[in-house]
Specification:
Strand content: 25-35%
CATH class of the largest domain: Alpha Beta
CATH superfamily of the largest domain: MoaB/Mog-like domain
Structural class: alpha+beta
Radius of gyration: 31 Å
CATH topology of the largest domain: Molybdenum Cofactor Biosythetic Enzyme, Chain A
Number of domains: 4
Oligomer: single chain
Low-confidence stretches: none
Largest sheet: 7 strands, mixed
Shape: elongated
């Protein structure tokens, strides 16, 4: 087992010990924000026919040449073509079809003139037009949006509404996606109470579970919360871990990360003969964090402090969860940004803190956030502060949440 490793090593080790889950075939209506398990290609051209891109009048090639000489043109309106009509029509010189947006253009059409650009004589059913038009004007050609064989989604891609629209446009109704990971959250600590319980002096309400549940859902997984708080008892902790490992794909255990008398989580890992991957990360708040494998599942033990648990979820657990989900493209990358104001405390070790991206007078900077701050954060960040950093203008690493 490795100890006191870097955050980067911790993420790499965790991800290296995770295999993506299996797949399931679901209807497109149920596929929003799921992860595609295949490359998805269109089997048809889109559009699959030449269609009008607006309401107007279709004209043939010979009439288009006359119109483009600068002369006015009069055409007999022979019919109306509505969207959805599958009847193939042929356009002839001197004639036009009134055509609706999205409708199949008649054979021989060279362009569609906007209905606003013509004069219509209702008593004679004739239009007159003037002004040049380009060949193919206002006609969406077959395959203009997509060609048969074009890829519309990639394996490992999150299926947003926009991506699903393209898939639906191809006529595909069933999609192969990765199964949603089930993530158990176990809160340890004899001082904790579930919200709604009567509180006594010396007790606190467990709030990390609510934070982690939301973050797990936000990452596209299913949180499974223990129906009780687990007291600081090795056998009780062991029983909860065994139950969680049976029903979930990943387990997050909060609390018990220290080396005190009642910090029993790591001792429980040893009791269960879990395979240790690492213990301790050289970053605050990861000093006591550990990761093990148990019954083929990865188990994270992070601080019971909600702020610390939230930070470690974003930088350590979430990348592993995304790999478990098969998501290859959603991970946020670290980038450089300047501090817009100083940290209250400059630490002699690498540390994480919450921040906000501020846009002001053409500049972008990061503002550290006090963990007790209750103001609404519009562009939340995780800030990676190196030892000794913290002055205004210092360049730090950041990741959008």
């Amino acid at each position: 087992m490795t100890s006191n490793i870097s955050l980067e090593e911790a993420v790499a080790i965790s991800c290296a010990n995770i295999n993506v889950l299996g797949c399931e075939h679901i209807h497109i209506n149920d596929a929003f924000m799921r992860v595609s398990a295949d490359n998805i290609v269109s089997f048809i051209d889109i559009p699959s026919f030449d269609r009008s891109s607006m309401d107007g009048y279709a004209i043939g090639r010979a009439d288009l040449e006359i119109l483009n000489t600068g002369n006015s043109l009069s055409l007999q309106v022979t019919d109306i073509i509505q969207a959805g009509s599958i009847e193939s029509k042929q356009i002839r010189a001197g004639e036009t079809f009134k055509i609706m947006t999205g409708a199949l253009v008649p054979e021989g059409s060279a362009a569609v003139i906007k209905q606003e650009d013509v004069k219509f004589y209702i008593n004679r059913n004739i239009i007159t037009a003037c002004g040049s038009q380009k060949q193919g004007e206002n006609i969406c050609q077959t395959g203009q949006e997509l060609k048969a064989g074009d890829q519309v989604a990639s394996k490992g891609q999150l299926l947003t509404g926009e991506v699903l629209e393209r898939i639906a446009a191809c006529g595909i109704d069933k999609i192969n996606v990765y199964k949603k990971p089930r993530v158990s959250v176990i809160d340890t600590g004899s001082e904790l109470l579930l919200p709604g319980s009567h509180i006594k002096k010396g007790q606190i309400y467990a709030s990390s579970r609510s934070l982690l549940s939301g973050k797990i859902k936000g990452a596209g997984a299913i949180p499974l919360l223990s129906d009780c708080i687990v007291e600081d008892d090795l056998q009780v902790i062991a029983n909860e871990i065994e139950k969680a490992a049976m029903v979930s794909d990943m387990v997050i255990i909060t609390g018990g990360t220290g080396k005190g008398v009642y910090d029993l989580v790591y001792k429980t890992f040893e009791y269960l003969n879990a395979k240790p991957l690492f213990r301790g990360i050289n970053i605050i708040p990861g000093k006591g964090a550990s990761v093990v494998l148990f019954n083929g599942k990865i188990l994270f033990n992070v601080s019971g402090n909600p702020c610390a648990a939230g930070l470690l979820f974003e930088v350590l657990i979430k990348p592993a969860l995304q790999k478990l989900s098969g998501d290859l493209f959603s991970s946020q990358k670290w980038f450089d940004i300047k501090l817009g104001c100083p940290l209250k405390v400059v630490k002699p070790v690498r540390n994480l803190c919450q921040g906000e991206m501020i846009f002001e007078q053409g500049s972008i900077y990061a503002q550290p956030i006090n963990k007790n701050s209750n103001h609404i954060i519009n562009n939340p960040l995780i800030l990676d502060i190196q030892a000794g950093q913290g002055a205004t203008g210092d360049m730090v690493k950041a990741k959008l949440i």
